[in-house]
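Regression report. Comparing outputs from two consecutive submissions.

Submission 1:
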Amino acid sequence: MSVVTSSLSKDQQKKLLSLLGHVRLHLLYKASVHDFTAAAFHNRCDKQGPTVIVAYNAAGFVFGAYTSKDYAQSGEAVKDGDAFLYSVNEKENRPLRVAGITGQCAFKDEATGPNYGGLVFLHDDKPEFQSNPGTSFNFQAAAMHGGDLKLTEFEVYRVEGFGDLLPKPWRNIQWTAERKQQLMNAIQNYKPDIKSVHQARVLLVGPVGAGKSSFFNAINSVFRGNMTSQAIAGTADKSVTTQFRTYTIKAGKGGGAVPLILCDTMGLEEKPDAGLDIEDLVNIYKGHVKDRYQFSPSTPLLADAPGFKQQVTLNDSIHCVVYVVDTCKVSLLTQKMLDKFASIRKKTNQLGLPQILLMTKVDEACPLVAEDIKNVYRSVYIQTKARELSESLGIPLSCVLPVKNYSEELDLDQETDILLLAAVQHMLNFADSFFENQVLEDQETNDQLELYRSSDHQRPVLSGKTKHQVA
């Protein structure tokens, strides 16, 4: 995924958040990427709930407006008692906050750029703004923006509250050492329903930086009993994984293999000529791609290429597909990326493969979960993001699993392990569903063949005479 990043420095973001309270900012619109026009603004910012405008100028000011209301191009003057203008600059330790003038509207909800009276942004579809102190808001121009009316950047963020903790978790998890051991034993003793298959093969698919490789490293660490880094993971905006990799997990150093193979792929990107090709994905599903095959975004793997495995069995094919999405970037999934997910889902459904969605980095997305991982199923915010992903990707909520990968820790954590192991158990359960369908299909085929043989056996032999010649 081409990631659109914020231009806010940590200090600027800290000061802005001090005005907004216990919230998280999700970047919706960045003018240098999406265009300095009213149409581009409304295309990405309408009906998004509470938002904050962040404008930048060459004088070093970061300033803008907050509203708790929707932009909807209604043509009406919108009143909002919670709206305010603000300004942040390096010379001042505390941000400037300007409340609206009593009785006046907060902004005019028109098809133009955001018009707060005192500040009118994207005027005439240009990277500039108008300053009208005393209209809806009273402020000193020098303190607000330094008199520089040209914009070097213009961003809009959705303001999302983390909410309180639910009185009861929306899923029940036992956070005990006994439960961790039960999960580990169940996974290590897993046996596929089909005797000829010895290990379940699970494919991880997701945007660049979602945490696919980190998930394998985390699972491997749990079974090894210490931190490992077998799969290359990173934070680059291009996929760190450039090969198709199949990873075997061992129980302890030098121990036996766990009956699970996690397969890692190149990250998805929204551009058609970048990231993992969908045709390559289909070949992976069917087992035709060899381990360590080097992906080529411009050319999918061909049947006569060296990396193509001609003879395949059910052991080589994928038995469960796991989509991996960064919880922090749920709101930044572009329509192009959602369309790519939809195309992948269609292909995957056609092949009858069960699918799960992992929400990674839940601790980074919600501070309540960062304080205590056991809050993951009590966090209103995490539940909201899970539902949002379920709806936008068309995956049942029961198939959406929040997890936390190990990233900066040096030691394992029991609660984190339980969350990871529970996800693996779901993957094996879904792989079982795939195997059961194979058994049923084989049984149906055998029944049809047997029926044909029975009919063929009872068919009368005409001894050289045609039907019309029989007396």
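Submission 2:
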Amino acid sequence: MARVLRASHVAALPAGAALHELSLPLTYLDAVWLHAPLVEGVFFYPDATSDVLSNLTDSLSNALGAFYPLAGRLRLTPGTHNRYELHYQPGDGVTFTVAEYDNHHVGFEELATDGPTEVAKIVPLVPPLPEGGAVLAVQATVLRGGLAIGVTVHHAAYDGVSSTHFLRTWAWAAAACSGAGAPEPPFVDRSIIRARDDLYDAFTAPRLSSNDDDGGKPPDSPVVQQLLATFTLSTEYLQSIKEAVAGEAERLGVPPPRATSIIAAFGFIWQCYVRAKPGTDGKAASSCGGRAYFLLPADHRTRLEPPVPDEYLGNCLSPCIASAPRRDVAAAGVDGLFTACAAIATAIDGVVRGGPGYWDRWMDWISGAYSAGDDLSLTVAGSPRFRVYDTDFGFGRPAKVDVVSVARTGAMSVAEARSGGGGVEVGISLSAGAMERFNDCFADAIAWLSW
């Protein structure tokens, strides 16, 4: 449904000295993402027209001058059988596709909506990665009433912190800002992360779960038949969740779990998600056995020894894994909410206080979570601290940001509420039936909190 008008090769434009050939080795923290699905995001801008496309191309070239490894290719390191690298040669670049949305019955408002939308209508807004090891591709799609900027990334190249850094640099260049306030250049030396050959070998071996999608393939028909919807938890609702959890801890006579807005949001959504997805036998979640898992990314830039700079270009994440009996998470009202929030808080505390042994236990945790099956696991993509709604290319803030790849990964996307004020915005992709149940669970829980 997107008609390609043209595709160009945008090379990295060096800010100073000429760029030279570079091989940037992947660390074990990058290798964990080698078999992961691609990350696909779309930024919707209501006040942008095709007149801005030339400026977007030029500013992308400028941004790539600093982030030039992203213009390179992911490849097997010569002379090895399981070591990988980002290889850049002068002249390498990123594919920038310009397209026009072909369905004239669907305009900007129908796509940039919070309500359930067919994934099939949004997928054409994100570009495929070119063959040959590309790690980044960009697409600008002209819509009736606005513009969509789609970005596709291979997660082995860098994480959400680095992605945000790159997008801010590109947006700053596009907005023709002065030298004041320019983003810091990326830190591209990956030797700062100490090697863990045992973990590297484990991550480059055959994937842990045969259910994982191949990130290099387009979504299959069951995925595009899903719906994508956005749900917002205001500051007031988050405070109500924290008070409800604290009140339940007092009733149970136990110490209250760590109370933050992000734990409150994650616990609330996890409970709704588990309640919305029936077991493989069709039974309600509240009557199912087994465990439910919740996987959120933990940024280790300040926890590694030596610490890694905020501007580090690469992956510096590990999964923080919460687990609880499924029927307990699916319990109605404050019972399930307390279980979910307490499990997530415990998992986060385990990462914070994990020490050196944390990395030795990592593989066991991941294996346990994935062996449970996709129906029992919910993962997180994004963070409110990325401030995606501040991505202004010179024509205003985005009206909506979607992480389209959650339709393939089964993750929930997370961002700051676009209205500001400390709220949290969550994107969920489910089948039509599960989405209806999730929406009902969400509405019931909000009503319960409002009593």
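Expected: both submissions complete independently.
Actual: both completed, but the second showed a warning that disappeared on reload.
Relevant detail on submission 2: Residues 333-352 form the longest helix (20 residues).
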